[in-house]
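Can you make up a polypeptide sequence alongside its tokenized fold?
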Amino acid sequence: MAKKSVASLQTGSKRLSKAIKMVKSPKTGAYTFVEAIIDPLMVKDFLNKK
């Protein structure tokens, strides 16, 4: 199960989004959160990437 969260950020003339993805560790089985501030067009690729 993956948790998806996207927040819109605006800095000057550039629009950015902060994406947060929950990833399960293969070693321990614990979940960690991966965050990235990226272009809104790239959010789907970030969330689909393993």
